[in-house]
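so i finally got all the pieces together for this one. its two components total, 468 residues if u count the protein bits. some of the lines might not be protein, just check the labels. i wanna see the whole assembly predicted at once instead of chain by chain like last time, that was a mess tbh
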Amino acid sequence: MNLIYEGKGKKVFTDPASPDCRIVEFKNDLTAFNAQKKGSFPDKGEVSCGISHLIFQFLESKGVQTHWIEKINATQVRVQALKMFPLEVVVRNRLAGSLAKKMGREEGEILKQPCVEFYYKSDSLGDPFLSSEQVLALGLLDSATVSQIQGAALKINSLLKQYFQRAHLDLVDFKIEFGENAHKEILLGDDISPDSCRLWDEKTQERMDKDRFRKDLGGVDKAYREVLKRLESL
Amino acid sequence: MNLIYEGKGKKVFTDPASPDCRIVEFKNDLTAFNAQKKGSFPDKGEVSCGISHLIFQFLESKGVQTHWIEKINATQVRVQALKMFPLEVVVRNRLAGSLAKKMGREEGEILKQPCVEFYYKSDSLGDPFLSSEQVLALGLLDSATVSQIQGAALKINSLLKQYFQRAHLDLVDFKIEFGENAHKEILLGDDISPDSCRLWDEKTQERMDKDRFRKDLGGVDKAYREVLKRLESL
């Protein structure tokens, strides 16, 4: 196993068993604001790996094509190797985070319709927000790929909203990433955990995600474990 | 004539002749960066009014529905009263300005296709950039209106590109605004001048627009007069 890439929350290794696969290892690190704020907790990797595994299993069971193959141990999974697109894809159901900030409004407002957004992956540029029209005009993706990603993102949103609802969690927004495998199929890649979702408790609106860390609300470890517990009990 | 509104570059008055019309007066002021930078030149109002009048006459002659009625004198025009949408609409043909900056690239690159952008009109929020999906999700406009505006903006771009080309000017990008008249028709409103267009000389790529003022290149008055001269000679 050779390390190919180390990101903020995980490491990606070659898979000795197949050149078309990768081993992803979830780290105990927690970062925010383009990694300017750093933290960790002892079972973060395990909990995030557990949550992401349940979510990807669920999405696969509903016909979503993803890179997920199997969980190897508490913090490692085997996935298909993907050539990632240079965009983060965000889907919002309620106003929160950067969109609330730029509109000068309180978090929480339910949007008229779910909203798919693109962010150009560049730490040095601060991951700038791009409209789909800008993605096309800049030649970052072609029009068929943009449409396919938008459609997949909305389908994933609709599935995950129901899934989290069963766990009494409100899916406010989330970030996903897509890429192409060796057969040029577009698959959902990366992972999905409270690092990349805003999840609010259905009743108390308590934040059950990385906003606890971003906003110094405390108890980020407990919140992540609670999310895992609720999903495991479904 | 009662003053209804005074903006950065013009004043809008009631029209004693009709409650459905307005008199727009072009001022000699020049502002940039959300009015943090201020300037003026003596015949600015006259030159901008002249350029805008030629452009709106041209667009009307090509079937674009606008609020323009007639020029009254050197700095004043009569227009239909519109209820303006809270969005600035930008169309880009080449990479420049804020899009070049956020992508960390040089100005000038020709885009793969013209790109329509929306900016939420709010001085206090700094006119934030919104995707069409955000405009819909926030309920700022309905989907039919967004489509109509996008279509009109692309048609106006295609007409103006050819128009400026005849004057040996390259239309890099421009900002327009739309609104609804008393009959709920969506019309092109506001004005179009080197205040709101990037115009580069076809041969020398010399800036013939407000970027001369923004970037302290000098000769902004001469450039505006040259644009008027070239359009008058068509």
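Chain A has a mean pLDDT of 97.
The first helix of chain A runs from residue 44 to 61.
anyway lmk what u think
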